[in-house]
Amino acid sequence: MATLFELAGLHTTLPEATVDHLLRLTASWSLLSDLSFSDMLIFTKVIDPKSSADEYVVLGQMRPNNRSTLIGDDLLGRKRAAGDVPLVKLAFESGTRVVGEVSLDGFDDQIPVWCIPVRHGGQVVGVLQRLQGPLRGPASLYEQAYLSIFERLCDMVADGAFPFREEDVAGAGMPRIGDGIILVDGEGRLEFATPNATNALHRLGVYASVEGRTLRELGLKAKALERSLEHAIPALEEIDRGHDIAIVLHSIPLLDHGTVTGVMTLVRDVSDLRQLNRVVLNKEAAVREVHHRVKNNLQTISSLLRLQARRTESDETRVALHEAERRVRSIAVVHEVLSREPGEEVVFDEIVRSIVLLVEDTALAFHPVEIVVNGELGTLPTDLATPLAVALAELLTNAVEHAFTEFGPNEDVSGIVTLHLFIDGANAVAEIRDNGRGLGADFTLDVPTSLGLSIVRDLVRAQLHGSIEMTSVPQDQGGGTFVRVTVPTTERD
Ligand SMILES: Nc1ncnc2c1ncn2[C@@H]1O[C@H](COP(=O)(O)OP(=O)(O)OP(=O)(O)O)[C@@H](O)[C@H]1O
Ligand SMILES: [Mg+2]
Fold first, then answer.
1. Are 27 and 171 in contact (CB under 8 A)?
2. pLDDT for 122-171, tens place per residue?
3. Is 395 in the pocket of ligand 1 (CB under 6 A)?
4. 3-class SS at 50?
5. 155 and 8 in one domain?
6. What angle do CA 232, 234, 240 make, to 5 degrees?
7. For residue 374, how many other CB atoms are within 10 A of its CB?
8. Domain span at residue 76?
9. Does residue 355 sit in the same domain as residue 491?
10. Which ligand is the nearest neighbour of the Cα of 483?
């Protein structure tokens, strides 16, 4: 679908500032459409140096949120001969509002339309067409009030005063017509408030019958409204009352030849939304706290293991206890990261960094080894991150512990272990390569003898439904050991 910007470029030679004005009109015109319960189109005259045809093109189309649309088709970019849209042509050329009727596909009766010239920099640059659906009975008091505001905004469009240069007055998250409207006159005195707006005022403690008095007299300081009155610009404000009440006000000045003759304020009660946010935030904080405590507990366990390792007489037991300590710490690393940013996903690269530091610590006891990390896995689901982190810690530790055993601690051999991380389709892949002695001739991954690789196998295959391969790299290709772990990022228990 073409954008207004593209269509304007294709069919006209309108200058950028004008296109920008029309764009801003479309950013705010849901307001017009809702106030008038009408479909809206923006036309502009086709300017084609190669053709003298008198044509108009549809640059924008808007449907009301509070009525069903009259136009099922997408009319964007549709060109119409001037003869087929005489009211548009008249409004464009005369620069005044033209009211009439048109026939529309699918309707027996004529449809009432308004054609409002869109002015920018003193020039008519387009025509805003309002196609009004059949009213359901006589217009209610509120509908009449909406329509009268709509008419004032139409005059502003024809005057070049709407859309506002400062900001758009409609958009995601902003209050809409249906949320509630307060209308004040040029002195700030209340003319009317819709039932929803009245409820919102009640929540802010304004109970008195309000018509004819200013909000300030009623004890409510609404800065947005006052700014709009004073400076003739739209203004947004959230008024809070304690923890429970939050009301968003969006004030839009109504201008008559530059003078503020009133302010329409859209009012939205967002108390429930804010409370929900607060609950979610509290829940996040709780989850963070739990991770923090789990991490602290794991660190305590690892300290106990370290103490016990120091006390034991047997070398074998000491090594075993040190290993256990390291394993506990590598799990703690994941909780540490989660305690900072809880959620379904976790930035795995942060975990990798901590794991590498952990293993490098262990390595100092054996041989100087450098661990180089290439690539990254980005964010991963938390239930994948923990087992994967533990598996990587085991494999890196193995490389550091076993690959360079024939070299003494002071021998000048540079042990290098690389960890290459990447995403391959739906899989996360980790490749660990060292330039050490390689695996023994009788090595097989599938005979569970030692604890470390048994853990890795269990985590990767059973828990993560992934695969693992371990091979010695031939001497002519640099030697050492190559391990590849592949785990799907989506399918888990
Ligand atoms: N990168 C490597 N280079 C050389 N040999 C390796 C490498 N990785 C593993 N091995 C060999 O595989 C064996 C099994 O490793 P595994 O991690 O299961 O046990 P471990 O490291 O000996 O003891 P632990 O249970 O404490 O991890 C190691 O003892 C080692 O001989
Ligand atoms: Mg090991």
1. yes
2. 999 999 999 987 766 777 888 889 999 999 999 999 999 999 887 766 66
3. no
4. coil
5. yes
6. 125
7. 10
8. 4-159
9. yes
10. 1
pLDDT of 280 reads 75
| Pairing outcome for strands 123-132 and 111-120 | antiparallel
Q: Is 403 in the pocket of ligand 1 (CB under 6 A)?
A: yes
Domain check: are 357 and 335 in the same one? no
The reported pTM is 0.58
Question: 17 and 122 in one domain?
Answer: yes
Tell me, using a 6 A CB cutoff, whether residue 450 lines ligand 1: yes
For atom 16 of ligand 1, which residue has the closest CA? Answer: 452
Q: Which residues line ion ligand 2, judged by CB < 5 Å? A: 398, 452
Inter-residue contact 149 to 159 (CB < 8 Å) = no
Residues 41 and 144 in one domain: yes
Phi/psi-derived region of residue 95, left when phi > 0, alpha when psi is between -120 and 50, beta in every other case: left
CA 444 remoteness from chain centre: 49
Give residue-wise pLDDT tens across range 17-36: 999 999 999 988 999 999 99
Are 369 and 426 found together in one domain?
Answer: yes
Gap between the Cα atoms of 485 and 429, Å rounded = 6
Measure the CA–CA gap between 188 and 217, rounded to whole angstroms.
10
Instruction: Ligand 1, residue 403: give the atom nearest the CA.
Output: 3
> With a 6 A CB cut-off, is 434 part of the ligand 1 pocket?
yes
Distance 394 CA to ligand 2 centre (A): 6
Ligand 1 pocket check for 99: Cβ under 6 Å: no
* Closest listed ligand to the CA of 417: 1
Point out the least confidently predicted range of 96-100, 235-239, 411-415, 439-443. 411-415
From CA 197, how far away is CA 215, in angstroms rounded?
13
